[in-house]
Amino acid sequence: MKRKDLIKLLEKNGWYLKRKGGNHDIYTNGKDIEPVSRQVEIKEPVAQAIIKRRGLK
What we know:
The protein is α+β, with helices and mostly antiparallel strands.
């Protein structure tokens, strides 16, 4: 999955960029945090795990 597609999905569900970390950008919804790798292409199992864990639609 493309990183930009995962970020669009996060933002559509109320998540926003909290800060930039070392190798990851940290997204939050105000309560939870989710690190997103800065690689252009995120491996499909990792992307699906984030989507499932956060209940993104």
